[in-house]
Amino acid sequence: MKVLIVEDSIFVQKMMSKLISDHIPDCEIRTATNGEDGFQLYQEYEPDLITTDLLMPGLGGQDMLRLIREKDQNVKIIILSADIQKATREEVEELGISGFLNKPLTAERANTLLQMIQVARYAE
């Protein structure tokens, strides 16, 4: 399974990469630090699953999600963001996400993220 992590915090990128690779060792993981790089990597890498923050410099996660959905309605996308406004969450849910987790990534949320990835993996 190919996973793309789009996150502006290098610390969170490394933490999520380690979490996923430790629990799902056959995942191939790539990372991007903003929406522009994330969209470009999405096109080149063709991941099965994307995790993305919403609030990033440059092209944010919502705009990247819109661009991806113009090309692909099927790729699984999990939002991991501190932006918990109801309107924001409703908007990204309308764009067809597989899940939404609030930051920070606690142990409980990390387990939920792993479960979401497993569900997406077996839905392929």
UniProtKB/TrEMBL annotation:
PROSITE patterns given in the database record: RESPONSE_REGULATORY
Organism: Paenibacillus amylolyticus
Keyword entries, A-Z: Phosphoprotein, Two-component regulatory system
CDD domains: REC (cd00156)
Modification 4-aspartylphosphate occurs at: D53
Domain Response regulatory, chain residue ranges per copy: 2-118
Protein's name in the database: Response regulator
InterPro entries, per the entry: Bact_response_regulator (IPR050595), CheY-like_superfamily (IPR011006), Sig_transdc_resp-reg_receiver (IPR001789)
Domain of life of the source: Bacteria
Source lineage: Bacteria, Bacillati, Bacillota, Bacilli, Bacillales
